[in-house]
Amino acid sequence: MLYFPLQDLEAAALNLDDPEHLRIHSLETFGTHDGPGVRMVVFVQGCQFRCVYCQNPDTLDVHGGMLIGIDELVKRADRQRSYFGKDGGVTVSGGEPLLQRNKLTTFFKALHAIGINTCLDSNGRLNDAATHELLEHTDLLLLDVKHINDEWHHKLTGLTNKNTLDLAAHRESTGKRMWLRYVLVPGWTDQPEFLEEWAKHFTRYKTVDRVEIIPFHQLGSHKWDLLKMNYPLKGLEGPTLEGKKAAVHTFNKYFNNVVLK
Ligand code: SF4
């Protein structure tokens, strides 16, 4: 994994309304955590959720980050394509990519035009015609369904899970692939009854070909301090081995391909 600073992109910084530029936080080359194979990962800037466990709080501000031309990103992906192999490609993660869904449709169409696989990592916050258009050009959707109970989802993220569940249903209706992601947080998302409910909700989905459980960790906590933001989960330990095994056991009852990250 290689993160590189964006100073070399400063020349690309133009105004926000320019449809040809994406507002991004950073780029990762040779990413192996966000979708299949080796991927160029574009972390976009801006998110409307406020997850208590967010490990990238520096991506939340919709006015932060840097603007980069979509054509520049396509050129970078093209230069890296020999590393992608048959499974890899480009993933857009965040932040929340759907905030820039029209521009991402342009980006994904351009990638498809040169034969590069596209993957979108989203919290599903928006579910409208423009989102559906983007999903048409998304080979694989990585959908973060953060809690099945709406009250808990509010506590966890500040917003409802309704749009996310509706977006999952939409994706299912299109027959196109998705992976579901679940961050396991002790005391917040590990309640046995809600793990069961989450799994039952999706068990009949034919387009879900993998479920990823991502154990909570504290690796991003220092960023909250740097931003002088109050970190709600300060000092919380990640899930125990037993906690992780219990979640895997529950999901294994309902899905064929459960991966503990
Ligand atoms: S959706 Fe992702 S980027 Fe947004 S607050 Fe939650 S964890 Fe952070």
UniProtKB/TrEMBL annotation:
GO MF, one annotated term: metal ion binding
EC number(s) per entry: 1.97.1.4
Keyword field contains Metal-binding: yes
A GO cellular-component term linked to this record: cytoplasm
Entry keyword Cytoplasm: yes
Domain named Radical SAM core: residues: 33-253
Source organism superkingdom: Bacteria
Keywords: 4Fe-4S, Cytoplasm, Iron, Iron-sulfur, Lyase, Metal-binding, Oxidoreductase, Pyruvate, S-adenosyl-L-methionine
Co-factor binding comment: Binds 1 [4Fe-4S] cluster. The cluster is coordinated with 3 cysteines and an exchangeable S-adenosyl-L-methionine.
Subcellular location per the Swiss-Prot or TrEMBL entry: Cytoplasm
Entries under Gene3D superfamilies matching the protein: Aldolase class I
Chief localisation class: cytoplasm
Swiss-Prot/TrEMBL cofactor(s): [4Fe-4S] cluster
CDD domains: Radical_SAM (cd01335)
Role this protein plays: Activation of pyruvate formate-lyase 1 under anaerobic conditions by generation of an organic free radical, using S-adenosylmethionine and reduced flavodoxin as cosubstrates to produce 5'-deoxy-adenosine.
Similarity annotation: Belongs to the organic radical-activating enzymes family.
Classification via PANTHER family: PYRUVATE FORMATE-LYASE 1-ACTIVATING ENZYME, PYRUVATE FORMATE-LYASE-ACTIVATING ENZYME
Listed name of the protein: Pyruvate formate-lyase-activating enzyme
